[in-house]
Every structure is written in structure tokens, then in C-alpha cells.
From TrEMBL:
Residues 196-499 form the Gamma tubulin complex component protein N-terminal domain. Belongs to the TUBGCP family. Signal peptide: none annotated. Keywords: Cytoplasm, Cytoskeleton, Microtubule. GO terms for molecular function: gamma-tubulin binding; microtubule minus-end binding. PANTHER family: GAMMA TUBULIN COMPLEX PROTEIN, GAMMA-TUBULIN COMPLEX COMPONENT 3. Its main location: cytoplasm. This is GAMMA-TUBULIN COMPLEX COMPONENT. Residues 764-789 are annotated as: Disordered. One of its GO terms (biological process) is mitotic cell cycle.
Length: 855
């Protein structure tokens, strides 16, 4: 401070003291001037107050102090003075720059205290001084008079002044300190230095001289036979908690490291023990410092020492505050993780990191960086290299040996028990799929382009492929790396499947051949295998069927397909039982090799086979109706040969043919609409949706899901689902009835053809007999001629045959009507909307609805 400012402050203090002395109600012994002894004593006392380190117990807020003073004036009814104070304070507070006061609140506080002191002095019973402490003459008063006056002031109410501590010429304070030390020694059998040293031993897991571990109470105790104050005993017990916690943590480390490399320990457990050991190393360093300080003696209360490097129990409690928090947390983690390992251990430790205390949070973060290091290395190796470096089964991705076709679906899975809580379930699924994609490319596709893709993903994520590039607390970086790697590797995998292995072309081939979408091929195959498949199943050769399949391929547009696709199409003869025909056991199969068998698994191909059998039966029924129509053509069964038959036989023949034609029309209407529904509403719509989903698929899981959805859609809409089982059975009963009708129609046509042949033969015979009768005359006694007898028998047999066929056709018609009505009645209650649309197609004119009662 400059000399001019110092002089200014000195003058202000002198002026303040002078004014205070002049306002005393009792006249001073001398006029208040700088040379007066009272003035000099009061000035020295004022400087003692100003130079002391005493601070007020209020917040340094000038506005609050001013408001308090103003409120006090207003309470006493001095509103004008309160307004004047407010104006003066506004001017005082707004003044800044040179000459202004910085500590405005201090000035206001000083003025407030002086005002209150003045009021106390005025209200005292025998007030003679404004500030009595400022009027003391310390030089003229002896110690005895000074003490007596102090007692008098307390009686008069002057105990609001500042207490003056006088000198102690008789060393009474030192004598009292010595007596206190002797009393402490009498109460303590053991010195505090010895107890401090014992506590330091205990904190290292070593029994001290007086503080030892008691297994009965599971803790360190100070023997009851040792005479120490109760407060000291409590303090020692609190400090020994750190030793008990240390003993637990140290024992866990020794136990785990003694079992390593056991499978129940693992690399994460080893990293946890290493992190605990690092914390204990810092703890050992602290104990070394404290032991050095414990060598210094504890000074007495009365001794003044320049060195503070001594250790008492109270100081030790301050030193142990932070280590106790850490050690207590480590003990909790040790108890929690004793039966855990791998990702489960890391997740359990992570739960304790969610703490509001910055000390605990930072400690847990440092601990988790060590513990999670092996786990993050496993994630990096799996995501970027596809390597599962998990010797002790600690990773949340588990692998198992399977065949190549089952690698994607069954080779790897998530172990929920090993998934740490700081890795979300969607992120874990993406991690699993990324590593699976690499292994699928390497094992099933024999592709190595994923390595460059993984390097690009690491560069895009801002990390490297080196070990240790990821750690705890970098969850965002981990997620970015996984997202980038998954995006690039999945894209590369789909490119390999679409381009190199032609997945889309194979799906289309299955649709064309197994789902009978190639019309000319299916029709020609039906034509050439029909006669063979009508034979008993045990007489049919699969080699012969394979030859007929080749003939159908060469005779249709299928011959222009990729030879690799045609080579995969094969004949499969199902197991047959007694009475089975070739139609019941014949089927086609498609050989899906690696890696296509990941999509077209055995279960998937079994569903395709079921669909093929249904479609093959439907095509067989359609083919049977077409064959029946060919034999029932009017120009084949109507001829002038029937003109010579009796009128009744002729009417019966036309009625039977008409009835057969009506039944055929009804069955053809049903089969045609069902065939249209299956081929267009089911197969084509499902294929269109599947094609669109293939275009937007981002990974192999999306592709598998799209294909499963495509296959499920076909199964459900084709009445092959579990919910349509009764409908499926009704439909196959109808198919069998239609095939039975075909056999009756064939019998009817064969009978008509035979009747035509015999009628023609009878006409020729009658012409020959007429010529012979004109040449010779028969005996009148001879019976009728052979022609007349043969014609009657032929007409009789024709009538019986037509009557039987008409009756059988009528039974078929009635049975078909009942079965069809039962089938149609089940369609509206089906849950799938497309099956309801099938009912609309079959009963478009509401013909069947009118036939059913109550509709």
C-alpha cells in the first residue's frame, strides 16, 4: 500500500476515535486531542481491532446490510430516516472509480455495529461510556485493578465488549497444561504413539502389540484389559475398520490368483485382481508416508512446534477418510464378484459406478478400465476379425461346433448371463451378427474380402484394428465401430450371395419348378409321367422318372435355364405304403448347396416339398378333368349309330351324358378358380413381396426373415397352415372325389364307345341277313332271327349300364354338393383375409349361398 493511502487511513481512524470519545456521556479526563492519554489508548485499541484476523459471521452482502438497517429504522417509526438512508446508500453504492470504496459492505457493517454499541451503552443501568473498551488506560492500571474492573463491567452489562487477554506472569496456564498431561498419563496405560503404530500395523493386515484380530467377532479389537479412555477405544475401533477391509480384499486377491488359470477365474477376474492390486499399491505408499510421520513424537498441548509431521489418532482418522471409502467399495465388489466371472462380473461392477460422489465415480471408472480391457478386446477381435478369443467362456457370444449349413443359425448365440449392463441388447445383437457374417464369409463362402471391409470400418469409426484401441467409457466409439463394421460386412455378404452364388436366380428356379410356376414344363411332365404314375408305387423306377424329367426339360423352355440350376433339379420318390400309386410318392427336389443351404435348410425344403405335393395334387386333378373333357367331347360320343336304338334308351343316354357334363362343369369351375387363386393370389403376390424385401434387405438375417415370411405366406394362404387343417382335409376329400368322377366318366365313355361299336356291327349284320332272307325262305316254326335277339339284348344291356352309371353319377353329384358346401362354409370363418377372398371367387354369383339354408 502506498504511503499516501496509509496516511489517509490513519487520519480516518483518528477522526473516528475522536468523534466516538467526544460523544461519551461522561466528560473525559482531558480534551479529545491527539496528545491526550485516553485518545492514545483508544487509538491503539482501535488499531488492534482493525489489524486482527477476526471476521464477521455474516455474508459480505452490502445490499442485505443496508436493507437490514433500513428495515430496523422503519420498524421503530423512523420512516424519514429510512428514506434518507436509502438515498444515501444508492449514491454510495453507485460511486465507482478512483476514490470509491471497494468493501462497501464492511463500512456498512462497521457503522451498524457502532450504532448498536451506542444503543447498548445508552440503555445500560449505569452507562458512562459509549465504547467502554476504548477508554481503558492499560498503562496506568495494574493487573489486579484491571481484573477487578472486568468483573465490575460484567455486572454492569458491559460483556458485549472485546475480551482482553492479559499476560500471565505467574505461568498459571503452563502449570495447568502440565497437570492435564499428568492426568492423561494416569488415564492411559498405553501411549497414543503406540496405539497409532498398532493401527498402522493393523491396516497392513498385521496384528499389533495391543490391537489384534479376533476371529470370534471377525474384526480387530483392543483388549479390554488395557486401560484407555472410552473415546480412544472407540477411535481405535473405527480406524481398525480399514484393516478389516484390507484383510478381506487382500484375501480375495490371494485366493483368485492362487486358482488362476482356472476356468472360473478367467481373464476378466485376473484383470479385476490386477486393478485391486494397483489400488493396494497406492494404499501401501500412503501407509509408508504415515509410518514415517508416526516416528515423530506427538507434542504436548502447551508446546509450540514448528513441525506438523506427527501422527495422532485424530490425524490418522483424517488420513484414512478417503482410503476407507475406496477400501469399503472394493470389499463390496469383492463380495459381489466372488461367484461371478467374465461379462457378468464387469456388469456387476458397472452397476456400482452409478454414484453421485465424484470420488467414487472416478475410482470406479479407473477400476473398470482395467476390468473391461479383456472384454473390449474380445469385442474388437470378434467384430473386426471374426475370432472368438474366449478360452474361459467369459464372452457374451458363445460358439459351438456345427456343420457348415447350420453355422449361421446355430453356430453362435448370445449368452444373456454374460452380457454386461453397459452394452445394450440391440448392440449385442449387432455385435453377434457382425462376427457371424465374417465367419460365414470365411467358412461357407470361402471369401476373404471381409478383411479390407473391416479395415475400412475401423478407419470410418476413427479407431484402429490394433489391440487396446477400445476401453471402458468409450461406449459411443464401440457402437460407432460396430455399426460401421456391420454395415460394410453385411453389404459385402449380400453382394457375395447375390452375385457369386446367384441367390435370386435359385429362388426363382424353386418357384418355377417346385412351385410349378413353369407352365409348359409342368404340363408336359404331367403328360409323359401320367401313365407311369398310375401304376403301383413299388413298381416305379426312380431312374425312369429321372429320364422322363430330362425329357420334360428338353421339350420345354426350361432347357434355356442355367445348367447349374437344371443340374440341381431331381426326382424324389417318397416312402410308400401298401396300395400307394405313383402319384402319391412322386415329387421333385432342389439341391441347395453351401452356402445356399443356410437359407434352404432341411426344414425349409420339407415345407417346399409339402407345398409341391399340394400343388401337384391340384395339377393332377386339373389334368384329370381336362382328360375327362377330351373323352366327353360331343363329336366323340354322338353318332348316327344311336339312331336305331329305342327312344327310351336314347333318352337315358342323353340324360346320363348331360348329368356327367353338369358335374364336370361344377368341378371344373371349382378347380379353375382354386388354381387361379393359388397361382396368382398366393404364389405371385408372395413372390412380389419377397422380391421387394430382398432389395431392401441389409443383412443376412433380413434375408432369412424375408424368405421365412415368403414361405409362411404361401403355407398359410394355401390352406396348409395349422389353423386351416380341417379345411385342408376337406379339400383333399374333394380332390379324391373329383378323381373318382374321372374314373366314372372314363367308364361311361368306354361303355358308350363299346355300344357304338356293337351297334355298328349289328347294322352290318342286319344288312347281310336281309340279303339272305330274300334268297331263301325260313321255316315258319323257327324262332326269331339272331339279329332280332341280339339287338334286344344289346338295348337291354345298354339300358342297364346307363341306369347304373346315372345312379352312380347322381351319388357323386350329391356327395360333391355336400362336400363343397362344407368346404365353402368354412372359408368365411378363416382368419386370413385371402381365404375369405377365395370364397368370394368361388361363390361370385351367390349360387352356393342360395343353396345353403339360412343364408
Amino acid at each position: 500500500m502506498e504511503e499516501e493511502d496509509q496516511q489517509k487511513i490513519l487520519d480516518l481512524v483518528k477522526e473516528l476515535v475522536n468523534r466516538l470519545l467526544s460523544q461519551n456521556p461522561k466528560p473525559p479526563t482531558c480534551n479529545p486531542n491527539p496528545n491526550c492519554p485516553d485518545f492514545q489508548n483508544s487509538l491503539r485499541y482501535a488499531f488492534r481491532i482493525l489489524s486482527s484476523r477476526l471476521t464477521p459471521s455474516i455474508a459480505p452482502d452490502a445490499a442485505a446490510i443496508a436493507e437490514s438497517i433500513k428495515r430496523g429504522l422503519a420498524t421503530k417509526g423512523k420512516s424519514s430516516q429510512a428514506l434518507t438512508l436509502a438515498e444515501l446508500y444508492n449514491k454510495f453504492a453507485s460511486k465507482t472509480g478512483p476514490g470509491s470504496i471497494n468493501n462497501k459492505w464492511a463500512v456498512l457493517y462497521l457503522l451498524k455495529i457502532i450504532s448498536e454499541d451506542k444503543k447498548i451503552a445508552q440503555n445500560a443501568p449505569n452507562s458512562t461510556l459509549l465504547l467502554p473498551n476504548l477508554g481503558l488506560n492499560e498503562l496506568d492500571l495494574s493487573n489486579e485493578s484491571r481484573i477487578s474492573r472486568d468483573f465490575k463491567r460484567r455486572e454492569k452489562g458491559y460483556d458485549n465488549g472485546v475480551l482482553l487477554v492479559s499476560k500471565d506472569p505467574e505461568n498459571l496456564l503452563e502449570i495447568a497444561f502440565r497437570e492435564f498431561v499428568n492426568l492423561v498419563k494416569e488415564e492411559n496405560e498405553v501411549s497414543e504413539e503406540v496405539l497409532v503404530r498398532d493401527v498402522l500395523y493393523v491396516c497392513q493386515g498385521i496384528d499389533g502389540k495391543y490391537v489384534k484380530f479376533d476371529a470370534n467377532v471377525d474384526g480387530y479389537v483392543l483388549s479390554d484389559s488395557i486401560k484407555v479412555p472410552r473415546a480412544t477405544r472407540v477411535m481405535v475401533r473405527k480406524l481398525c475398520e480399514l484393516g478389516w477391509l484390507f484383510r478381506k480384499v487382500k484375501g480375495y486377491i490371494s485366493e483368485i490368483m492362487g486358482r488362476f488359470p482356472a476356468e472360473d477365474v478367467g481373464t476378466v477376474g485376473q484383470a479385476f485382481c490386477a486393478a485391486l492390486q494397483d489400488e493396494l499399491s497406492d494404499y501401501y505408499r500412503l501407509l509408508a508416508v504415515l509410518e514415517a510421520q508416526a516416528m515423530n513424537p506427538i507434542p504436548l498441548v502447551s508446546e509450540l512446534t514448528s513441525s506438523v509431521n506427527y501422527l495422532s489418532l485424530r490425524r490418522l482418522s483424517i488420513w484414512f477418510a478417503e482410503p476407507t471409502v475406496k477400501m469399503r467399495l472394493m470389499a463390496v465388489l469383492v463380495d459381489k464378484c466372488r461367484v461371478l466371472r467374465g461379462g457378468a462380473m464387469a456388469g456387476a461392477i458397472h452397476l456400482h459406478a452409478r454414484h453421485g460422489d465424484p470420488l467414487v465415480h472416478e475410482f470406479m471408472r479407473s477400476l473398470l478400465q482395467h476390468v473391461c480391457s479383456p472384454l473390449f478386446e474380445m469385442v474388437r477381435s470378434w467384430v473386426l476379425e471374426g475370432e472368438l478369443e474366449d478360452i474361459f467362456a467369459e464372452f457374451f457370444v458363445v460358439g459351438q461346433p456345427v456343420k457348415a449349413e447350420s453355422l449361421w443359425r446355430e453356430g453362435y448365440r448370445l449368452h444373456a448371463g454374460m452380457l454386461p449392463s453397459f452394452i445394450s441388447q440391440p448392440l449385442a445383437q449387432r455385435i453377434l451378427r457382425t462376427g457371424k457374417s465374417i465367419n460365414f464369409l470365411r467358412v461357407c463362402c470361402d471369401d476373404h474380402g471381409w478383411a479390407d471391409t473391416a479395415t475400412e470400418a475401423a478407419a470410418a469409426a476413427g479407431t484402429t484394428t490394433r489391440r487396446g484401441s477400445l476401453g471402458y467409457g468409450e461406449t459411443d466409439a464401440l457402437e460407432t465401430l460396430v455399426v460401421e463394421a456391420a454395415k460394410r460386412i453385411d453389404k459385402h455378404l449380400l453382394d457375395v450371395m447375390y452375385t457369386r452364388y446367384k441367390f435370386k436366380e435359385h429362388c426363382l428356379a424353386i418357384k418355377r419348378y417346385l412351385l410349378l410356376g413353369q407352365g409348359d414344363f409342368v404340363q408336359y411332365l404331367m403328360d409323359i409321367v401320367g401313365q407311369e404314375l398310375s401304376e403301383p408305387a413299388n413298381t416305379i423306377s426312380s431312374f425312369q422318372m429321372a429320364g422322363l424329367l430330362e425329357s420334360a426339360i428338353r421339350s420345354s423352355n426350361a432347357q434355356y435355364d442355367d445348367p447349374d440350376i437344371l443340374d440341381r433339379l431331381r426326382v424324389k420318390m417318397l416312402p410308400h405304403g401298401t396300395g400307394d400309386r405313383g402319384w402319391d410318392v412322386f415329387s421333385l427336389e432342389y439341391d441347395a448347396r453351401v452356402p445356399l443351404d443356410t437359407v434352404f435348410t432341411e426344414s425349409v425344403m420339407a415345407r417346399y416339398l409339402r407345398i409341391f405335393n399340394f400343388l401337384w395334387k391340384l395339377r393332377r386333378v386339373e389334368h384329370a378333368l381336362i382328360g375327362a373333357w377330351k373323352t366327353m367331347k360331343p363329336n366323340c360320343i354322338t353318332s348316327h349309330s344311336f339312331t336305331k336304338l329305342q327312344h327310351a334308351v336314347k333318352l337315358q343316354l342323353l340324360s346320363t351324358l348331360r348329368r356327367c357334363q353338369v358335374i364336370w362343369n361344377q368341378m371344373n369351375h371349382f378347380v379353375t378358380n382354386l388354381q387361379y387363386y393359388i397361382m396368382f393370389e398366393v404364389l405371385e403376390v408372395s413372390w412380389s413381396n419377397f422380391s421387394n424385401e430382398m432389395e431392401v434387405a441389409k443383412d443376412l438375417d433380413d434375408l432369412l426373415a424375408a424368405h421365412d415370411k415368403y414361405l409362411h405366406s404361401i403355407v398359410e394362404k394355401s390352406l396348409l397352415g395349422e389353423r386351416s387343417h380341417s379345411l385342408y382335409k376337406s379339400l383333399f376329400v374333394l380332390f379324391d372325389l373329383i378323381l373318382r368322377f374321372r374314373s366314372h366318366a372314363d367308364r361311361l365313355c368306354e361303355g358308350i364307345y363299346e355300344l357304338q361299336a356293337r351297334t355298328r356291327a349289328s347294322s352290318l349284320s342286319s344288312q347281310d341277313n336281309s340279303k339272305s332272307r330274300r334268297q331263301t325262305r325260313d321255316d315258319p316254326s323257327e324262332p326269331g332271327s339272331w339279329f332280332s335277339d341280339g339287338r334286344k339284348a344289346l338295348e337291354q344291356r345298354a339300358g342297364e349300364f346307363l341306369q347304373n352309371m346315372g345312379r352312380e353319377l347322381e351319388e357323386i353329384s350329391k356327395e360333391y354338393t355336400v362336400l363343397l358346401e362344407g368346404f365353402l362354409s368354412q372359408l368365411p370363418v378363416q382368419q386370413h383375409v385371402d381365404l375369405k377372398f377365395l370364397f368370394f371367387r368361388l361363390d361370385f354369383t351367390e349360387f352356393y349361398s342360395r343353396l345353403r339354408p339360412g343364408t
